[in-house]
Write a structure and sequence with these properties.
about 550 residues; about 15% strand; Rossmann fold; disordered C terminus; 15 strands; eight-stranded mixed beta sheet; alpha/beta; Nucleotidyltransferase, domain 5; seven-stranded mixed beta sheet; single chain
Length: about 550
């Protein structure tokens, strides 16, 4: 058989798989249908790529590839978005330029639809596409199951009205979107722009979609048995700073919004996290800690502005997102204003309470990276060892000068395992010519010290290493609190001069609360240890001087 005949036979086989997929879908075997279509789609995509020198063949296979998305669009959310926007140029589409970043969220939404989850929490920075993604979801839900009643809620009528109008646009604009091609013979049966409701196929007591603000009339407006979608239930920083307003918002959510959801309804929380006591935060705490909710299947996804490498998570294709430089400048602006809490909440999805924060950026001293023009009197560091569980290994490195001024010149702040951090610690010791390093001895610290000593011996570098247990007579938070007046006397690198680890180290220090929960407290704990190491070193030097050993 010639290669042309083989290709024809293979292509014919893929046509048959498409036909079998239609049969599977008709019989309700969705999983098999999706699998068959995906196999054919991969073949069509490969052949389209291979036909670069034959425009007609390439166009044929490319059309077959595009059409395959329409077969699976009613069942797969991502495929729906690909099919929905197929008429638009790629650079003008919403999903494709953002796919590499939003895919993890889209997959989680699919889990919710497929009854693998009961609730899903999504946190993203402002203007990164979360509301548009939810809008696409709502129009998909309307087409695939018009009999279900879905409820969309946000903090203001302006947002819910815009959402309602956006849904109408996607359904009605056949020049831009392919909604009617995906959901054939499916039309809007009724709509009410005053109440922001619309019905698909037939008018019902509880509309297919109701868009209502959290502070609007929810009672009796919708008996939600489809999706309950909450989108940015907190209006902004002013509301977030008012604890009474936050508790009032939760009361509205608990008594009015959640009360609209029937047992089988799926709940999707989308928004920018402002506070640990915002509605999403309170709900997460309930699911995590209340025995009555132990069987609720839920997932929390937070996509921060800057990732662990301090790079943008939203640098989308075609320049439609936000660059690393943009977010770093935003962070610098918040830090200069002494409001790192807002940066962490709005952009990193790590809400912290401003009340009870021990260190404020205005209390710390910063230098521009230029050290005094003299040799340091001491170079030392401490290591707060981490063994997993979300903790960070923290190693602030200090140069102390004869006038007593101390500079934190570098820092390690890493969740990596010991195979990575141990060589990193050893290399930092050699790089900065450290004379002494104190390693917290608790939980395997002595073993960690021995490993560092072995690495230094191999490189013939001498450093005085010690491993002592942290005192058990005082709580860690008390030790940090007592060390706070000394911690603020150190000089820290200013923003723009810091490494990724140093930046995370500073953020962790500024996030620490003396009362309440801390996600982790490794930076302030390490600084408290560094204070102890500093004054211990000074007392040893004074003692040696008095004994005339110099």
């Amino acid at each position: 058989m010639s290669s042309v005949e083989e290709l024809a036979a293979k292509t014919n086989d893929m046509f048959k798989k498409n036909e079998l997929a239609d049969i599977a879908f008709a019989d309700g075997d969705i999983k098999t249908g999706i699998s068959l279509v995906r196999e054919a789609r991969a073949f069509f995509a490969k052949e389209a790529s291979n036909r670069g020198n034959n425009p007609d063949d390439r166009a044929m296979f490319l059309d077959l590839y595009k059409e395959s998305y329409f077969k699976t669009a009613p069942y797969v959310f991502e495929d729906y978005m690909m099919a929905l926007e197929s008429k638009r140029p790629v650079r003008e589409r919403f999903y494709q330029p953002r796919r590499k970043k939003l895919k993890v969220i889209v997959d989680a939404i699919q889990e919710l639809v497929d009854d693998e989850l009961d609730e899903l929490f999504i946190s993203q920075p402002p203007r990164t596409g979360k509301t548009t993604l939810v809008l696409f979801l709502a129009t998909w839900l309307l087409g695939r199951d018009p009999e279900k009643a879905n409820l969309y809620s946000a903090f203001s009528d302006t947002i819910t009205t815009a959402f309602y109008q956006g849904a109408l646009e996607i359904i009605n604009d056949d020049e831009t979107y392919a909604w009617h091609k995906i959901f054939k013979n499916t039309e809007i049966a009724a709509k009410n722009s005053k109440l922001n409701t619309l019905d698909i196929k037939r008018k019902k007591r509880y509309p297919s979609l109701t868009c209502r603000s959290l502070y609007g009339t929810l009672n009796g407006a919708c008996d939600c048995n489809g999706f309950l979608i909450s989108d940015d239930l907190i209006g902004g920083i002013e509301e977030a700073l008012n604890k009474d307003r936050m508790l009032s918002a939760w009361s509205k959510v608990d008594n009015n919004l959640l009360a609209r959801a029937k047992m089988q309804a799926k709940i999707l929380w989308v928004g920018t996290r402002w506070s640990v006591v915002d509605p999403a935060g309170i709900r997460i705490d309930l699911l995590e800690n209340d025995e009555n909710y132990k069987n609720v299947r839920y997932k929390v996804i937070n996509v921060p502005a800057l990732d662990g490498e301090d790079e943008s998570n939203f640098d989308y294709d075609y320049g439609v997102g936000f660059s690393t430089d943009y977010y770093r400048r935003r962070r610098a602006s918040f830090e200069r204003a002494g409001d790192l809490a807002s940066w962490l909440a709005q952009y990193q999805g790590e809400p912290i309470e401003r009340e009870g924060v021990l260190f404020n950026v205005n209390d710390l001293r910063f230098y521009n990276g230029v050290l005094p023009d003299e040799e340091p009197a001491r170079r030392f560091a401490v290591v707060d060892v981490a063994w997993g569980g979300g903790d960070y290994l923290c190693m602030p490195i200090c140069y102390e000068y004869d006038n007593g001024e101390s500079y934190i010149v570098d820092a390690i702040f890493s969740q990596a395992n010991k195979s990575i951090t141990q060589p990193l610690v050893a290399n930092k010791i050699i790089q900065h010519k450290l004379g002494s390093v104190a390693i917290e001895g608790n939980n395997g610290g002595k073993e960690y010290k021995d490993a560092i000593e072995e690495l230094l011996d191999k490189k013939d570098y001498k450093c005085r290493l010690s491993a002592k247990n942290a005192p058990t007579t005082k709580a860690k938070s008390v030790r940090i609190f007592e060390s706070a007046p000394d911690i603020v006397e150190f000089w820290f690198l200013e923003d723009g001069k810091r490494s990724k680890d140093y930046q995370q180290f500073i953020q962790n220090l500024l996030s620490f609360k003396i009362l309440g929960k801390n996600k982790n407290d490794d930076a302030p704990d390490a600084m408290a240890q560094l204070v102890k190491a500093k004054y211990f070193g000074q007392s040893v030097k004074a003692h040696v001087t008095n004994k005339s050993y110099f």
